[in-house]
Structures are given as C-alpha cells and as structure tokens.
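ok so for the tutorial part 2 we go from a plain amino acid sequence to predicted structure tokens. step 1 is just haveing the sequence, like this:
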Amino acid sequence: MALIQQPRPTAAPQTSLLRAWWFLVLLSWRRQARARQMVWIALGLLAFTTAMTAVATAADLWHRPRFRQLAVADQMMLDALVPGSPAQAVADATFGAAGVAVLTDQSAAQVFARWVVAAIFLGFLLPLWSLSFATEAIGGDREQNSLIWLLARPLPRPMVYLAKFVALLPWTVGLNMGGFALVCAAAGRPGLTALRLFWPAVLCATLAFAALFQLMGAAFRRPAIVAIGYSFFLEIILGNMPGVMKRVSIGFYAHCMMLEAADRHGIQIDRPNVYWPVDGTTAIIVLLTTTVTLLVMGMVVFSRTQYHDSV
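step 2 — the prediction. this is what the tokens look like for a chain of 311 residues:
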C-alpha cells in the first residue's frame, strides 16, 4: 500500500524585532502629531515671542543707546561685585560714561544674545518646549490607558522605550530648532548672527531635555507637572545661582557652549569670573553623556515599573 505523504507543516513566520520596532517608531510618531494642551501652550509662546521680537526689531531696540546702557550698567554692577584689576575698572567706568557712542551690529548681537537668547529662550522657552512633547511619549499612553496594550506586544521594554524616544525627537528638535530660528529671524541681522553661533547649544540641550522629560514620563503619573516644577526650580532659580550649584542644571552647560561661541565672535554674554563656566568641549561632552545616561535610566525604570494604573 502506498503511503500517503503528509504535507509538511509550514514554518511559522517569525516577526522581525527590528521591523516591529520601526513600526512602533512610526506609530508613536503619528501619535505625537495629536497636539495636546502643552503643545498649544508652547506654540502660543512661540508666536508671542516671535511677535515681540519683531516689534523690538522694528523699533530698533537692539541698537538703542538706552537699551544698550542697561546691559552696560549690568556689566558694571557685576564687576563691582567681583572686582578685577584697577585698569579694568577705569576702562569700564570710561565705557559706561561714554554711553557707548558707537553702536555696531556686533553690539546689537550682544544685546539680543544676552537678553533674548540667554535669558528668555534658554532659561524659559527651551525647557518648556521640550517637555511639551517629551512628557507625552510615555505619559500620554498612561493617561489614555493604552500602555498595557503596548507592553503586551512582543517587544522588550527597553526597545519600546527607545522607540518612543526616537519618535519624539523629530517633534522636539523641530519645535526647538525651528522656534529658535524663527525668533532669530525676527530679530534681523543680530538674530541671524545668534542663530549661526548658538544652534549647536540649542540642539545639545534639546537632546538632554528630551531624555530627562521622557524619564519623568516613565517614572511619574503626572509628568508634565513634575517637569514644569523642575524647569522653574532647577533651570531658572538654581541654574542662575552663583557658585557651582548651577552645574546640576542642563541649561548651564548649554549656556557655557554659548559663552564660548560668543567669545570667539567678540560678543560677551556674561563675565567668566562671575558665571564660572566650563569650556565648550566639556559642556558638549556633559550634555551628550547626560542624554545617554538619562536614556539608559529611563529604560531601567520603564522595564521595572508595573503600570497597574494604566488599566
């Protein structure tokens, strides 16, 4: 009797982890497109800052002697707190008494860099814009009760966390770099000079803030509130305190990168003997190392946390 040959069972298709990971990146990127309240606040601040910068440019405030004298008076006050050589004190006094007779594009760029880029953008807008997307990477899934479904997929948790980070980068980097370019463009020539000098610092700070705020999203139930508290306390208050205490803030190292770039262009944002900066290379290394460290910490926290509150 001829034996009936049984059909061989077909091998079960094996899902590629890399393909599944890229699908999750694309899915997460699409979910980030759904604007939330924090994103609308960030866009509103961008529109307001750009409009105010354009008004200041139209009024030629960057070249106004009165506006420039405010910066000079501030520098003289800092020199009085930390006295330098007698020759430097005489030079500063003469410079202040003269009222800055000659106002060049370089001095206008210094005013814009100090009051808009360093004080407003770096100290306030950059952290706030970063958290608007970064806290939603994990926190948004928790609030929408979709995180448990995501964790049930055949992907290791560290890969899920990394996919979320990669997906938020185009939005966060696009908002920060695009917003910075828009504000600088509204300032005219001083703004274009600031854009050319300071974009590396904005980019490095964006990466570090994105990693930090996504970590907060994995660790806390209301990450946006925690991130706002961090931005106002560490980045604004502690980041501007004298001494070495400011070195725990991300903005300090971005500021150091700006100081070095500005100094090469002949622009002085802060006195080195007051701000105590690190060199630009050290600042870049610290920011990139901080980004990787926070990303690894987030993977560990995300892998070990039981998200029962997302059911």
